[in-house]
Specification:
247 residues; Thiol Ester Dehydrase, Chain A; extended; 2 helices; transferase
Length: 247
């Protein structure tokens, strides 16, 4: 089978409802004879609905074998993690980080608030990320909360505009079972290069280029507030009515 994502484009973000169930279908087609790449599509629909929405398209490929987090890794240890904390990197104060994200529209529950420390050095932001001790990781290649928190450091030098992942290129899972990781996010011409390693510097996940795009109305889900006109009950009034009204 394929063990790497050559490219994945998020066409329509999947908004999970507060209640109810979402049906999800991932389709992998046969390999292309010339490249060996396999097309993949992701569709979803609310439970009980007949209409499927295509949320993502991409291609899968084959690179190296995935190992457990406690076994030797095939890839070489990235130079980004040879010294920790990184040399010449400046620490970032995270005291109000998640409060500021919530105010900007990013609301993360306790399980997803995994960013523990961060540093900046040139075009690279470094971070330490860890899961809550009660979180089970055995069912995942990499736990979603761990991967999501690994990208939070990218918000440290972002503006006020909310951005979401749009495309992923060169995604490889090098190890499973990680509960705490070191992260390096580096700005590159094609987007942001992502390197995630365990506390010993051994690779866990790598992404050649992640592209973010501003959040749109269609990607942010239904509004929490809506305008509704409510008619007033007729008042009981026996006096004379005025000739003019001012609103």
């Amino acid at each position: 089978g394929c063990d790497a994502i050559d490219e994945l484009v998020i066409e329509t973000p999947l908004v999970v409802p507060v209640t109810g169930v979402v049906d999800l279908t991932v389709t992998v087609d046969r390999a292309d004879d010339a490249t060996g790449h396999r097309p993949v599509t992701v569709h979803a629909r609310p439970e009980g609905s007949d209409a499927w929405t295509r949320h993502a398209t991409g291609t899968l490929t084959t690179t190296t074998t995935t190992t457990t987090a406690t076994a030797p890794h095939t890839p070489d240890t990235p130079d980004l993690f040879l010294q920790w904390p990184p040399a010449n990197a400046h620490p970032v104060d995270l005291t109000a980080f998640y409060d500021e994200l919530a105010a900007a529209g990013y609301g993360y529950g306790p399980a997803f608030q995994g960013l523990r420390a961060a540093w900046r050095a040139g075009d690279t932001t470094y971070a330490e990320v860890a899961l809550d001790g009660a979180v089970e990781v055995d069912r995942f290649g990499v736990h979603p909360a761990l991967l999501d928190a690994a990208l939070h450091a990218g918000r440290l030098d972002a503006g006020d505009e909310l951005e979401l992942p749009f495309s992923w290129a060169g995604v490889r899972l090098h190890a499973t079972g990680a509960t705490a990781v070191r992260v390096a996010l580096t700005r590159v011409p094609a987007g942001v290069a992502v390197h995630v390693a365990d506390p010993d510097g051994r690779p866990v996940v790598s992404v050649d280029a992640l592209v973010l795009r501003p959040r749109t109305a269609t990607s942010s889900g239904p509004d929490l507030l809506a305008l509704e006109w409510v008619p007033l009950a007729e008042a009981d009034y026996d006096g004379d009515l005025p000739d003019n009204y001012t609103l």
